[in-house]
Structures are given as C-alpha cells and as structure tokens.
Amino acid sequence: MKIAIGCDHGGLRLKGEILTYLREKNIEHFDFGTYTCDSVDYPDISLSVAQAVTGGEYDRGIIICGTGIGVSIAANKVKGIRASLCHDVYSAQMTREHNNANVLTMGERVIGPGLALAIVEKWLTTEFAGGRHGRRVDKISEMEQ
Question: How far apart are CA 38 and CA 47, in angstroms?
Fold first, then answer.
C-alpha cells in the first residue's frame, strides 16, 4: 500500500506523528507538505493528495488540518475521492468497510496523537466489505457524472 499524506500549518505536528508511524510500519508514503508552520492554503494540499490518489500513484491519502473539516471538503471536490473526517476508531473502520473511503482527514486541534494513530491503523487495515455497500458506493460515483 502506498499513502499520499499532507497537511496545512494547523496539522503539521500530527502529520509528523503519522509519518513516524508509517516509517515504523514500513508503509510506503510521500509527504505532499506543508513542511513548516507558515500559513498555507489547505485546498492546495488537499488537491495534491487527492489527485495523487485518483491518478493511481497512491492507494489512499491522509490529510490533516486544524479541524479536518476544510481538507475534507476540499478533497471531496475531486472526482473519485471519498474523503472521510474521522475522530474516532469506529468511524474509521466503518468508512472503510461501508464507504470504501480513499482519503482520511483529521484535525490536530480536535484529537491527540495517540487516538490519531489508532484511527490511522484501523483505517489502513480495514478492507472494503463490498456487497450491498459496493452498490451504494457505485451510486455515489454516478452522482459525480
């Protein structure tokens, strides 16, 4: 699995924790920025990560900002992206099983690193259930046409 990851200035520290986790688990990834606490526009980072996923270069994406809301909204504007804002482990599991989410978003100002890493682990290790959920995800894709 290959992961595209990015953040705005509000998610820099949490992204660092997640990058450490990805390295420890030997999960291939690329960091699309930002790399400093200087203010950046989150739609730019969201677009880079989302396009890397829809382009097939990466299997999934993770984007962090202060709340996770802005990056989720922005990423979901990209055709083929199903970005899901998760601040609990159960939602991370369900968004993979039922929605086949390909981008996870979180907010550094909302959750701490311990919970964030548990969410990432659950999200990365949960497979899409398919079946009736596949039919529903197909309907979402049809809405993008």
Answer: 19
